[in-house]
Amino acid sequence: MPATTGKLPQPEAMLFDLDGTLFRTETVLLPAYYAAFDRLREEGLHEGPTPPEERILGSLGMLLEHIWERVLPGSSPETRRRADELLLQNQLDLLEQGQGKLYEGVADTLRELHGRGVRLFVASNGLEGYVKGVIRATGVASYFEDLYSAGEHGTRSKVDLVRLLLSRHGIRTAWMVGDRSSDVEAGRRNGLTVIGCDYAGFRSAGELDGDDVRIGAFPQLLAALE
Description:
The chain is an alpha/beta fold. It folds into 2 domains: 13-24 and 102-223, Rossmann fold (3-Layer(aba) Sandwich), CATH 3.40.50; 26-96. 44% of the residues lie in helices and 14% in strands. It contains 10 helices and 8 strands. The chain has helices at residues 26-42, 53-58, 64-71, 77-96, 106-115, 128-137, 150-153, 158-169, 181-189, 220-223; strands spanning 13-16, 23-24, 101-102, 119-124, 146-149, 174-178, 193-197, 213-215. A 6-stranded parallel sheet has the order 5-4-1-6-7-8, sandwiched between helices. Strands 2-3 form a two-stranded antiparallel ribbon. It is globular, with a radius of gyration of 17 Å. The two termini are 21 Å apart.
């Protein structure tokens, strides 16, 4: 594992994963998840108990189609589409009610980075409405130059999403900041410095192997800058 902190030159931009990196996903995901399955049962699209929450938490960072393959193996396309709709709407409702929470220190750290002139972006495999809804509801939208999601751009991997973002914004040097193997891969394959976030608890052992610097709390990002 790389050192917890190190001193690296300030990059032109930083690209952030959302769930498990900026946002405490479980603060809206779990209540939305259980409510979605209650509705699926009411509509006759699912029988039996709600799948264990560990399945959905362990799937964070994946594309939605892969999440439902894991959470609802063998389910119909209709059930998966409806589950998508319900989960998104429930999460957006909870965000509007003020239930979603950022990790400690995220807002202050983003404000500091923005003040230093670092261009800030989100790169997430989530749905467009969810990604934009989280950033808007948590009050940090003004710090970001743009928000990229697989749902909006139809990319098949985070590698492709990050490549598109870098190209469209003419970025030469950047850090990829995230908590899953997909973030490490996206950074590595696009020639970026990778900052591994080791505080969410959703990842499997070894997922952050290949990162350059690992942080145990979001504000430690500032300590990695020269």
